[in-house]
Each structure stands twice: as structure tokens, then as C-alpha cells.
Amino acid sequence: MRVLVIHGSLRRDAFTTRLSRAAAGLAQEGLELDLYDGLEGIPGFNQDLEPDVPATVEDLRKHLDSADALLVVTPEYNASAPGALKNAIDWASRPHGESALAGKPAAIISASPMPFGGIWANQQIRKAFTITGTPTVEREVAIGKIDEKLAEDDSLNDSATQELVKTLLLELEELVGEVNQGAEEEAAAA
Predict the structure, then answer these.
(1) If we measure between CA atoms, which residue out of 165, 161, 171 comes closest to residue 135?
(2) How far is residue 16's CA from residue 30's CA, in Å, rounded to a whole number?
(3) Which of 34, 51, 108, 158 has the fewest C-beta atoms under 10 angstroms from its C-beta?
(4) DSSP secondary structure string for all residues of 48-109
(5) Burial of 4 (0-12, 13-18, 19+ CB in 10 A)
(6) Cα(53)–Cα(88) distance, rounded to whole angstroms?
(7) Largest Cα–Cα distance of the chain, in whole Å?
(8) Kind of pairing, strands 106-112 and 69-74?
(9) pTM score
(10) Which residues of 150-171 are buried (b: 16+ CB within 10 A; e: fewer)?
């Protein structure tokens, strides 16, 4: 199973970028995490551009289409998700009726050096996924004090956090199975 990982920060060695690498190292056998690094090239959402979609947006959509699931790893800026991440979600959800996010199973991890772990950004992305029709793992994983939990080699040095990430990935895999089963049953009934 292939999971596209979008980390919300544009900074090269941001905590969420490093956490995305750590999650890839914790993935169970048969689960491939593919880190997407194209957020900075996506222009601000503008409905006037939809008839001639920018190449960077097409690239994002192709990555989403080829993945079985999505994992968003987001920081929190001023009590919300970063603009570049929200912008990518807006582009991926368009045009209406052709969303690359509709029906795509997803999970969300937020992380911050602050104790609450970016829970408001987590909830903002979760709310957006409700509107885009993106089935999302119910567990909210918000990792506080991430700066203390990442080792220099981009692994997690905190066993409780490792278990949170592993459990979330297992639940994402289960959600993919549920979504696929539902689609098969719907196709058989048609």
C-alpha cells in the first residue's frame, strides 16, 4: 500500500519534514510512505486558473491519484495550519466533482515544539477533509515538544510517540481496507 505524505512546512529541515521521515521508518511491512516535496511550487488557489491548471497542481493531483492513502504531517502557525498546506488542499479538491481528495483515506499528525502539539492545525485540516469528502482516521495525533522527540538521524527517540505513529499508520491501513470494501460492495450492488 502506498501512502502519500504531505508535510505542511516549506522549511527544508522543519520538524514536520523530519517527522515525516521518522514515520516512514516506522511503517509496517507492505506500507510505503512517499514524501511529497512540491508544496512551495503550488501557486495560490485562484479559480480563474482552473481552466488551465498549473503543472505543479497537476503533479500534486497525480501523486494523490496514484496513492492508496494520504498522511498529512502539519505544524501549527498562529493557531492554524500553514497557508501552503491549506492551499494544496484547496487545489486538490477542485474542480468541484473531480476532487483528488474525495474518497481518499487520510490520517493527520500535527507537531509543534509547544506542549499542545498543534492540535488546532490538526482540527483545521480534519474540518477541511470533512468538506472534501476525505475519510479520515478518527484518532487525533498531536505531538507536543517535537523538538525534544526527534533524534539527529530523523528518528523518534520517544517510545510513546513511536507507538502513536505506528498505531495511526495501522489505523490508516484499516481505513483503506474499509473504504475499498465499501467501494466493492457499492460496485457489486450497481
Answers:
(1) 171
(2) 23
(3) 51
(4) GGGGG--HHHHHHHHHHHH-SEEEEEE--BTTB--HHHHHHHHHHT-STT--SSTT--EEEE
(5) buried
(6) 13
(7) 53
(8) parallel
(9) 0.95
(10) beeebebeeeebbebbeebbeb
Domains by residue range for the chain, with CATH:
2-189 (3.40.50.360)
Identity at 152, one-letter amino acid code: E
The CA distances from residue 165 to 62, 74, 94, 133, 146, in Å, are 26, 14, 30, 24, 13
Q: For the chain, what's the residue count?
A: 190
pLDDT tens, position by position, for the chain (190 residues)? 999 999 999 998 899 999 999 999 999 999 999 999 999 999 999 999 999 999 999 999 999 999 999 999 999 999 999 999 999 999 999 988 889 999 999 999 999 999 999 999 999 999 999 999 999 999 999 999 999 999 999 999 999 999 999 999 999 999 999 999 988 888 888 7
Query: Which amino acid does the sequence have at 142?
Result: A
What is the amino acid identity at position 171?
E
Q: Cell numbers for 102, please give them.
A: 474525495
SS3 169: helix
